[in-house]
Amino acid sequence: MLVSKLIAPVAFAATVFADGAAINDGLKTVDADIKALTASLTGFSGDLFAAIPVLGATLTLKSAIDKTTKTANSSEPLSSDDTVGLADTVGTIITDATAAIDAFIAVKPKFDKLLIVTPIAAGQVKGLKTSTAALGDAIIAKVPADFKDVATQLVGQINAQFDRVSKYNSLAT
């Protein structure tokens, strides 16, 4: 009984204290995972077993995006200072996401030679696109009204990368 009285406030506090810093930390993890995915893509040899690290990096990235979405959804509305900090991190993510999409496009011919890899990669990209859209929506919902247009434009730049890969090939439809 005493233990449950102690644990409940701690668990509650963990959800209440989600703030701009927690979201920014999550976004930095997402960015690190984007870089790891890009590295696995650029290192992909075309061998079936070499696709395993690509799949692993994609799943790790999706997990980080989903976790950050939960953090953003549980956050209080963001301050202007928090929003500016997030915008800086998102700017870095845009650059790194562009590199990741470039890597996906470059490696697609190697995926196609293995037949089974392209549909798996397409499913992974689609999952990343869905998770990324949910994260963008969660963050936009928390920024002050004066920043919503800028936040929407930044998220739009990331979404444009998924649109670019969709137009190039069947990796994300």
UniProtKB/TrEMBL annotation:
Pfam families in UniProt: HsbA
Any Gene Ontology CC annotation: extracellular region
InterPro entries for this protein: Cell_wall_mannoprotein_1
Coiled-coil ranges from the UniProt annotation: none
PANTHER family, A to Z: CELL WALL SERINE-THREONINE-RICH GALACTOMANNOPROTEIN MP1 (AFU_ORTHOLOGUE AFUA_4G03240), HYDROPHOBIC SURFACE BINDING PROTEIN
Protein name: Cell wall galactomannoprotein
Organism per entry: Akanthomyces muscarius (Entomopathogenic fungus)
Lineage: Eukaryota, Fungi, Dikarya, Ascomycota, Pezizomycotina
